[in-house]
UniProtKB/TrEMBL annotation:
Residues 1-258 form the CN hydrolase domain. The keyword Hydrolase applies. Keywords: Hydrolase. GO terms for molecular function: hydrolase activity. InterPro entries: C-N_Hydrolase (IPR003010), C-N_Hydrolase_sf (IPR036526). It comes from Ruegeria faecimaris. SUPFAM superfamilies: Carbon-nitrogen hydrolase (SSF56317). This is Predicted amidohydrolase. PANTHER family: HYDROLASE YHCX, NITRILASE-RELATED. The keyword Hydrolase applies. It comes from the Bacteria.
């Protein structure tokens, strides 16, 4: 299969038609390169808040609600594009108010047959906890598709090994991210690469990029697209299948074969995934040694 991951820049939108045209162009470009799965980044949907004007886009709480209110239309658009181009699409995540509680950070995976399902972020960053008041969402899911089994770890979630281990059956783990500084980008990238090593799978990181002075939430974004595997048989020695240029909007592509993933899990130079449980008894018996 061919994977496409986005370094995605936000735009100021004057009307809904501009958003439709933008998404159609991005999807068409990747599908035109033969992509079977497209990955957009975390909080890429925040540009929709501009449709309600500068006062709303610049206010944290009002921008959250404005974006959440448009998610029905967003889902219809993405579903149509996935069917039209016969590709899977992980849409950019958005704050979604689901019920009477606080919003969750939700990414939706769209299939070419018209079906879709979502994954909510599990662990909030300090900004999400202390400024946005974003709540942890529903449980982790494993999506069984013709492309293989797909898991999703949204940004900060990728930095937690036990969340990754819960998705150890996944062939591909998608990591949509939104990071303000270069250090944040590298934290998520290191997390994505670590999960690929531990699970002997492929991880796909998408990034929000660029400056947006109209927003207090996504005003500065650093990153690029990256596709990673274990540095082992059938994969590059660095574990990097593909990476884009830092902060340059566009798609990054890599071709992945499920057979290669199965082979490295069965007969890699190391077998991290199979040997995971050997840690368990040893970490419970740490002793203190005075020197």
């Amino acid at each position: 299969m061919r994977l496409a991951t986005a370094a995605y820049n936000l735009d100021w939108l004057e009307n809904w038609a501009q958003y439709e045209d933008k998404l159609a162009r991005w999807v068409s470009d990747a599908a035109g390169q033969g992509a079977d799965l497209l990955v957009f980044p975390e909080y890429g949907a925040m540009e929709l808040s501009t449709l309600d004007g500068a006062e709303v886009a610049g206010d944290l709480e009002r921008s959250i609600r404005a974006v959440s209110d448009r998610m029905g239309d967003v889902q219809a658009l993405h579903s149509r594009l996935a069917q039209e181009h016969e590709t899977y699409i992980l849409g950019a995540s958005a704050p979604v108010i689901d019920g009477s509680g606080r919003p969750v950070n939700r990414a939706v995976l769209y299939a070419p047959n018209g079906t879709f399902d979502h994954q909510d972020k599990q662990i909030m960053t300090r900004f999400e906890r202390e400024d946005w008041d974003i709540a942890p969402g529903g449980p982790l899911k494993l999506f069984d598709t013709p492309l293989g089994k797909i898991g999703i770890l949204i940004c900060y979630d990728s930095e937690f090994p036990l969340l990754g281990r819960a998705l150890s059956e996944a062939d591909i783990i998608l990591v949509p991210s939104c990071t303000e500084a270069l250090a944040g980008y590298w934290r998520v990238r290191i997390g994505a690469m670590s999960r690929a090593l531990e699970n002997q799978c492929v991880t796909v990181m998408a990034s929000l990029v660029g400056k947006n002075e109209w927003s207090d939430a996504v005003d500065m974004n650093t990153g690029t697209g990256g596709i990673f595997g274990p540095p082992d048989k059938g994969f590059p020695a660095t574990g990097v299948l593909a990476e884009g240029a830092l902060n340059q909007p566009g798609w990054t592509y890599a071709d992945v074969d499920l057979t290669t993933i199965a082979n490295v899990r069965r007969d890699g130079h190391v077998l991290n995934r199979a040997h995971w449980d050997e840690q368990c008894g040893r970490v419970e018996t740490v002793t203190i040694s005075s020197l």
